[in-house]
Amino acid sequence: MSSLLAFGLAKRAFDISPADIAVIFSVALATQWAMSTVFAIRFEAKSALITSLSLTLLLRAGPLWPLAAAAFIAISSKFLLRARGKHVFNPANIGIVATTLMTSAAWTTPGQWGAAMWLAALIAGAGSFVTWRASRLDVPLVFLGVFALLLFARAIWLGDPFSIPMLRLQNGALVLFAFFMISDPKTTPDGLIPRIAFAAGAALLAYILIFQFHRSDGLFYALAIACLIRPAFEFFDTAKRYQWREPPPAQSPANLVIPAE
Amino acid sequence: MKRSINRPVKRPLKKSLIAAASVMAALAATGGAFAFCGFYVAKADTKLFNKASKVVIMRDEDRTVITMSNDYQGSPKEFAMVVPVPVVLEEGQIHVTDNAIIDHLDAYTSPRLVEYFDEDPCTAYVYDEIMVTASRAPAAAAEKRRGDDALGVTVEAEYTVGEYDIQILSAKESGGLAVWLKQNGYKLPKGAEATLGSYIKQGTKFFVAKINLEEQAKTGLHYLRPLQIAFESPRFMLPIRLGTVNADGKQELFVFALTRNGRIETTNYRTVKLPTGMNIPTYVKDEFGDFYKAMFAEQVTRESENAVFLEYAWDMNWCDPCAADPLSNDELRELGAYWLDGENGTSKPFIRRRPPPPSGGAKDVFVTRLHVSYDAAHFPEDLMFKTTGDRENFQGRYVMRHPYKGDAQCDAAKDYRAGLPKRFEEEAQTLATLTGWDIDDIRTKMDDGGQGYVPPKKENWWEKLWRKDDKKG
């Protein structure tokens, strides 16, 4: 993922400065450290680093403070907004949704990754590897599959050429979202069936938000809404809680020891 | 029309500026027809196609005002346009304005060539600034029949606004609409029906306009004025698909956006900044239009022909260097900036990160200029936009530096002269990279233009391997 950022900076000339990157990473790590201290758990940097990378790739702002706010909201949401022992929202996702709703000084750039198929393939390839290792490859595949189905159904209904849904599907931001954001194992249901329902539901929501409500940030709002109703999916979910690593002996706050990937 | 503006002493070199204004003329001249979102439909078999058009969009929340510049040069009898619109428009939502305002906005946002004159390297710099901007592009009775209910076409409203006879149509299916348009003298290009069908299913209405010859005669003008429409819609987009149906090759579109928040960009295509700030040879001054066209074409190719280019993004309060004065509040209001109170009014204050305007009150208008060269193959979908919070200023700006020609004898002068060939070579390379022009042609022209130098001899790789004095090796 960090190589993606390097690629983005070099090839796509992203409007992101070293200061932006530094602010996102330092606020995320500081928040992680502070919250770990408050909740008396071991400080674990990796999750915060992944969240920072997602924010760096997907969020833009004029001044620095919205980026800092996004990083703070993202990390603190993991500790403060919890249901059934898991955090409710995908951290980077809620950081993006909260800041873009709160201020017009922060925005996402859905078109910035372009629509080059090879770029999409590269992201998908790297993403598959990461999600496969986290045993969540079904999430991006179901999400993209359902989203693609809806796009093609729309094109057939409208009588549009298939080049239109293809253009949408090759969007780098979409592929990035599917493989690196929605697939986060800590914020997806643990059982296979609820997980598939979750991914398919998020795709349907995203479609509705983008095409019925004309929200260019529909993807991010869809995931936030899906996460909000996820505890309902999980109510019937008897599958074992996902752990990034073997659970340590002390079970109670242990699921706060987050990512290894 | 050439304009000179003398400005206060500011910059550490003499400089002048030439805007790329004539470029538009060159781009527009090929087609002679306007239509970004409509398509030209001729009653006769005259082959019409769209080549270049200018559209101004004011966007604030869902409020939208679209101004469509009209470069149509054919007979007014032949003019007809079809524009998909999200809602049925009332008469008050349609307006006709002056070309001059769009020309002004065009001039203000044009890519610019800045000229510097090197001073005597032996003396301190004298500060002065001259600006030149090239001229703008030359500004470039309908039979009424009720739509048959059987065709599923409803004429929702009919108005005569300015020299235009306008009808707002809604349709149930594309076949009926196509028949209605044909019956009413519009000639549909092949393939338009499918696109019309797509719009109909999305609930789109159709704004169709022809020229009212009587009204047109009353205006006393030899050109058609820009049409404006104001509406509210959550969709921030420009319909370009109909325009690609009957297009012969690529079309050029300039989108000027006026927002309160910041720069706009496309969400379904990449928005790329035009290369800017480069030093280029001085002879380009005389062919800046060609340079800009060649450079733009080269960048389009480099971005796989599917990118939208950012040419200008600026707070309307100021400019530096100015290719033209910022637009007045009255002009901005005319283009849709409803929050401005006229010339002496005040507007909602907000925090600026940039210097305050040299004069006048805060306008709270951010202008974005996008340039896209499109066809159906590379731009299958309409242009979808979003407003970002980005208020960072950007301009397409190219720099010429004239070497010092005087007689200077000091050590600094020797160093200066010794450094010139290297500088010229860099300028030649930059120009070749930007435009794809042949480097030897560039060197020849530089030589003719007083920027002669001996280009570095290209050394073959093996020449470094065995130096001449080491033949036995």
Descriptive tags:
heterodimer, A: 261 residues, mainly alpha, two-stranded antiparallel ribbon, 4 strands, 64% helix, B: alpha+beta, 9-stranded mixed beta sheet, 11 helices, elongated
Q: Number of helical runs of chain A?
A: 11
Mean of residue pLDDT values of chain B: 76
| Poorly predicted parts of chain B | 1-50, 124-147, 344-354, 357-361
Structural class of chain A: mainly alpha
Number of structural units classed as domains of chain B: 2
| Strand element count of chain B | 22
Percent of residues in β-strands of chain B:
25-35%
The side-by-side strand order for the widest beta sheet of chain A comes to 1-4
Characterise this structure.
The complex is a heterodimer of chains A (261) and B (473). Chain A is mainly alpha-helical. Chain A has 2 domains: 119 residues, no CATH class; 119 residues, no CATH class. Chain A contains 11 helices and 4 strands; from the N terminus they run αααβαββαβαααααα. In chain A, β2 and β3 form a beta hairpin. The C terminus of chain A is likely disordered. Chain B has 473 residues and is an alpha+beta fold. Chain B folds into 2 domains: 398 residues, no CATH class; 68 residues, no CATH class. In chain B, a hairpin with a 2-residue loop joins β3 and β4. Chain B is elongated, with a radius of gyration of 26 Å. The N terminus of chain B is likely disordered. Classes of the chains: A mainly alpha (261), B alpha+beta (473). At the A-B interface, α8 of A face α4, β16 and β20 of B.
Summarize the SSE layout with pairings.
The complex is a heterodimer of chains A (261) and B (473).
Chain A: H1 2-11, H2 18-38, H3 45-58, E1 59-61, H4 65-80, E2 82-83, E3 86-87, H5 91-102, E4 106-108, H6 117-133, H7 138-158, H8 163-169, H9 172-181, H10 192-211, H11 218-235
Antiparallel strand pairs in A: 1-4, 2-3
Helix pairs in contact in A: 2-3, 2-4, 3-4, 3-5, 4-5, 5-11, 6-9, 7-8, 7-10, 10-11
Chain B: E1 3-6, E2 14-19, H1 21-31, E3 52-60, E4 63-68, E5 80-85, E6 94-96, H2 99-109, E7 112-117, E8 130-133, E9 153-161, E10 164-171, H3 174-183, H4 192-201, E11 205-211, H5 213-219, E12 227-232, E13 237-238, H6 241-245, E14 251-259, E15 264-266, E16 270-273, E17 278-280, H7 288-302, E18 307-315, H8 329-334, E19 366-374, E20 383-387, E21 394-395, E22 397-402, H9 411-435, H10 439-448, H11 461-465
Parallel strand pairs in B: 3-14, 7-22, 16-18, 17-22
Antiparallel strand pairs in B: 1-8, 2-7, 3-4, 4-12, 5-11, 6-12, 9-10, 10-11, 13-20, 14-19, 15-20, 18-19, 18-21
Helix pairs in contact in B: 1-7, 3-4, 9-10
